[in-house]
Amino acid sequence: WHRLSVDDVVLPEGDLLVFGVGLGEAVLAGLQLGRDVVAWDRDPWLLRLLLMRHDVSRPLASGRLTLSLGADLLTVPPGLATWKHPLLAGLYRNEADVFEQGLRERRALVAEGTLFVEDIADALRDDGYSVWTWLVESTAGEELDRCARDFGAQVAFRVNHARGLAEACQRLDLPLKVWEIDPATDALDRVNGDTSRTRVFTYRQAQVPLFQAANLQAEYLPLAANVQRRTPVEVDADHRSDVCFVGNSTVERGRRCQQEVLAAWVLCHGGDLAAAAEGQRHLEAWLGAQSQDFSSCRVEEIIAATAPDFLETCRQGQHLPDPVPLVAEIAAADKRIQYVANLGQLGVQVWGDVAWKAVEPYGAIYRGPAGHRDELTAIYSGSALQIDIGRLYQQDMITMRVFDAMACGAFVLAEYSDALAEQFDIGVELDAYRTLQELLDKAEHWLAHPDERAAIAEAGLRAVRERHSLRGRVAHMLAADG
Predict the structure, then answer these.
(1) pLDDT at 184 exceeding the cut of 80
(2) What is the value of pTM for the model shown?
(3) Which of 47, 63, 452, 462 is most exposed by smallest CB count within 10 Å?
């Protein structure tokens, strides 16, 4: 962030609460002015950094400086003047709301994270909850327990399953709602003990029995759109496109998966260079076989047919990864690159990671990364035809791209799945394709029929607002047992 100096800090009159310590500039400024200072931060590392960078032993010993961490904010004495860190105050929005508005009767913890976390917090606030951020990834268990108790939490939310959290919530007698929204290549460990207070909602029907086998209650719940954030907007020329794809190429993830597969092969075959070369030949053969038809994922049967001993050894070994999801991830990147490269003949514009530059020689136009907030809304709103290309191994689910683009009034041409057909009226609210050729044919057709395309986009917008809002999903999770 922009680094402040002590001289840059303008403090209010009176004894002081520093909301967001940052690098300690306001703390030092307050002490230099002779104020009593309460220095609060959500992140224990920032308080530690303050102590490492500055000698504040005397004001600590005298009581002029009080360090406050996490839920300590709930007990800060009233009447202190408040200075908010210019960056951290926005990141600590949940805590700021509680501090300024006071605690409501209903209180929810939302575990730290990125995608959907802020949306869930907003939905809970709109439903009358005070929301507090739970630092499950970076805080010791004792502090997590103290935070939950001091805050008086009545429910906890987490985006994507995390090891140990179900046990922690059971210990606290706290209902936990987990919304799985992302793919994972790691095996799901069994959760021991009573997990009756935890309920998992997964974006893939196929994942339900896997969570149940891990001793967790689970149900299928599709993704959704935050229709307050994703809504049609007026856009400038820079965000207009005829054919558009927004998403990660997954090339870098595929490279990491390739390294894991080859390392597992070497461990299973003697550990020498000859084994590495043999593993590379097999991997190329598996990917070549899958690339003949990307309409279905055949990775497991391909590996089982050519290297059954390798597959069995990996699945029985405690320290070896299952090669199937790893190879499927590599193939998924190959599929996305191939499909978007072919859309280059229609001048497709692509937003995402830099690996998309590889498709520019085929006519595609790489536009760079897309900001998740306002820019993504503008990109979806400005596209005549929004293409959805799912991951090869997840052809039984609906991507968030579909919901978000439709919420922005875009016409969506999505890869067909039974889940898509269950949630939307194909041909009325959006359209779908099964093969690369069908994708190209339908893209050309809809570009040539703007009036029909607009009517379908309008119907899709209504469908998402009425049936697939994020706030509706949160309400469903709150009402579910667990």
Answers:
(1) no
(2) 0.87
(3) 63
